[in-house]
Task: structure prediction
Amino acid sequence: MKPRYAILVLLICLACSNRNTPQAVTEDFIFNYYKLANQQVALQLTDGLATEKLEAEILLLQDVRTQHDPTPEMPKMEYKQSGKETSTEIENITHVLFDYQLTIKNASGETTHTRNVVITTENIDGKWKVVNYDEY
Result:
């Protein structure tokens, strides 16, 4: 099989996979928000407090983003899950919390920062959404 066909098959399989799980939504959020710095795409994965936080951030950054400066080189970022907890709260609302460790490296591959992130997900009307996120 030619490489381009193998890539096409892989992309089709990924597109057809179930992304409506707490884990998948969390990973999509981390990838878009932290790794790509794309708040607009990450916003689509949120609800509640997480939406409020992102909308406020987008508003604060709109003047900076409208400038026509060349896009700076993005640092390399790696992330790995370090924990998971499921909790049932009042009215049988289930939250799934994920702990991730983010490692940020400069262009030469040296680690410059590490951050821990807690992401809370909730099933809202049949769709898993990020409802809060915090760094420490």
Summary: Residues 48-65 form the longest helix (18 residues). The CA atoms of residues 18 and 55 lie 27 Å apart. The helical segments are 3-16, 22-35, 39-43, 48-65. The chain has a mean pLDDT of 85.
